[in-house]
Amino acid sequence: MSTFKNKKVILITSHLKGRAIAYEWIGNKLKERGYDVLLLHIDNKDSNFEKYILETGIPYKRINYSGKNKLEMLFTICKLMLEIIKFKPHVVHTHYFDANLLGLTAAWIMRVPVRVYTRHTTTQRYRYLKGTRNFEKYFNKISTSIISISDVVTKVLMDFENVQFNKIKKVHHGFDLSMFSNINNNRLAAIKEKYNLNDVSIVIGSISRYDEWKGVEYTIEAFKKIVSVFPNAKLILANAGGIREDFIHSLLKELDPKTYTEIPYEDDVFALINTFDYFVHVPIDSEIEAFGQVYVEVMAASVPMICTLSGVAEEYIVDRSNAVVVDYQNSEAIYEGLKLLMENDELKRKIIAQAKIDIYDKFDVKDMIYKLEKVYNGK
After folding, report:
1. Could you give the CA distance from residue 91 to residue 245 in angstroms, rounded to a whole number?
2. Domain boundaries, the chain
3. Pairing assessment for the beta strands 233-238 and 324-325 based on DSSP bridges
4. What is the CATH number of domain 8-174+364-376?
5. Which of 54, 189, 259, 272 has a CA between 20 and 30 Å from the CA of residue 315?
C-alpha cells in the first residue's frame, strides 16, 4: 500500500498511564509493513504504558513535560522539533490533547508533509471543557488530515467546527480480536482469586470512569434491584475513579460491600472481561462517546451486553440482535435488560453469536492499518 519512498512515521501520544495496547498493535503492524516507526510519549512520569511499549521493541522515547507553564511548552516543542530533524519523518500522527498541541505544532513548523491527528473527543469539550474549544480549531487548521473514529466524530467536526469533509478520514479503531477470547485458565483463575469471584454466580461488569457522561450511576441503581432478586450477583466497576468519585461512593454505600468491587486499574483487562457474565455500558446520550472501545471488546470476549447507543455503537449495534439496547439515563431499563438476558438463554446465545460476526466484519486491526496507510499516502 505504501507508495512514498520515505516510510518513516512518528507517532506521538501523551499522558497515557495504563497499558494502551492499541499503540503496540499500530507500531508493530506498521513495522511489519516496512515502516520505520518512532513513538514519542509526552509525560513526566514512569507508567505502565511506557513499560509495555519498551517490551515490544518499538523505538520509543519519552518527552518530559508537566504542562506547568508556557516556557516549558515552548521548550518541549523545540525538543519535538529536534526529534523530527533527527528522524526525518514523512508522517507525524498525534493522539490526545498535549500530543496534538505540541506535536502537531512542531510538525507544522518543520513542514512535515503529512500531519495527522486522531480525534478522540466529540461534544465533551463543548459541555465540560469549554476553554479548550479554540485549540480543537487550531488542530484542525494545522493538520493535513483528521482521523475520525466514528460517524459521531465526523458530525461534530463538520457541524460544530466547520471542517471540510475531504480533510476528514474515517478510520475505526482496530483490534487484535483474538486477544479477547484466547485466555488460558491460569489467567482467569488469577483474576477470580484477586477479586474474590470464585463463589459468585453472576458477575456484572462495567468499565467506565466516574465522569458524568458515562452514566455509571444508572448501572449502580439497576444493580440494586438485580441484587435484591439475585443475591449472589456481584458488580465489578473497573477503571474506577474520576471527578464524581464522592457521588458514586454515596450510591455504593447503599449496597453491601461484598456485592461490588471497584478496580481503578487492571493490567490484564482481557482476562478481567472474560470473568463477566454480563456487561453494562450506558453513556448518557448518542454523541457524548467518540468511539467506545468497550462495546467491541466485550463482544470479542463473548459477553452479552446491555447498552445505550453512543459513539460507534450507533453504526452497528442493533437491539436484541447483538446487544440489548436501552434508553439513556434509565436505570429501570437497564434492570429489565439484565433480567431479560438472565432469564432467556436462547436470546443470550443469539446475541453473543451475532456480536462476534459483526465486530470481525468492522474492527479488525489489519483493516485499520490499511486505512491508515491510505491517509499517510495523502489519499
Report:
1. 40
2. 8-174+364-376, 177-362
3. unpaired
4. 3.40.50.2000
5. 272
